[in-house]
């Protein structure tokens, strides 16, 4: 059993630590590092399960060198920015504003985003100590410009979302996945950190379904 995990924008692979521990020792896994802290690790190959958080979900859909049998989306999406046929998304000007501010104050932009992800301070995440500006810029452009809705494999996917997520709202999730989701409540946008039990439970169910 091989699983690959992908984190979202402004975070790193360490968000999966508690989830991985709950899965047990007989699971082989790789942790993608998209490089926001300066170190990048992107494996290739076929996996039994691919698990993405936030932007990591859409990133998985954009890849050709990583394949899988089953897909797990946690606080995820196949499109992020709003469009004529996806008005529930985040307006591109919000992302553009972050892009303008990022070169001048990357730490401030990250702190603001982390606060939005965890407004009640449920996690002890310390943030990225040495942010890689070029990778953060790439990530925001990716969030603004990508549309992977046509690549989403509905029949082999599992969706875990939170009703109080302020980044990926309930309306976004319902629109993208037609209500075919499992929900938590009051846990926010960082379910791998705020509710690793719910995350691991979904993954264990997928393992059982293989």
UniProtKB/TrEMBL annotation:
Domain of life (superkingdom): Bacteria
InterPro entries for the chain: AB_hydrolase_1, AB_hydrolase_fold
Pfam families in the cross-refs: Abhydrolase_6
Annotated AB hydrolase-1 domain residues: 3-198
Protein name: AB hydrolase-1 domain-containing protein
Organism: Kiloniella litopenaei
């Amino acid at each position: 059993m091989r699983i690959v995990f992908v984190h979202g924008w402004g975070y790193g692979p360490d968000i999966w630590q508690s989830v991985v521990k709950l899965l047990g020792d007989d699971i082989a896994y790789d942790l993608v590092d998209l490089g926001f802290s300066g170190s990048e690790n992107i494996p290739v190959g076929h996996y039994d399960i691919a698990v993405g958080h936030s932007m990591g979900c859409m990133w998985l859909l954009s890849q050709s060198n990583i394949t899988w049998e089953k897909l797990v989306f946690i606080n995820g999406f196949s499109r992020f920015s709003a469009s004529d046929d996806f008005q529930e998304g985040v307006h591109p000007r919000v992302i553009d504003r972050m892009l303008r501010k990022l070169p001048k104050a990357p730490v401030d932009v990250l702190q603001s985003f982390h606060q939005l992800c965890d407004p009640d301070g449920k996690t002890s995440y310390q943030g990225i100590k040495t942010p890689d500006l070029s990778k953060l810029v790439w990530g925001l452009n990716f969030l603004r410009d990508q549309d992977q809705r046509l690549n989403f494999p509905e029949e082999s996917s599992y969706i875990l979302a939170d009703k109080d997520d302020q980044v990926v709202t309930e309306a976004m999730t319902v629109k993208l996945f037609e209500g075919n989701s499992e929900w938590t409540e009051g846990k926010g946008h960082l379910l791998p950190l705020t509710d690793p039990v719910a995350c691991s439970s979904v993954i264990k169910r997928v393992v059982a379904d293989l």
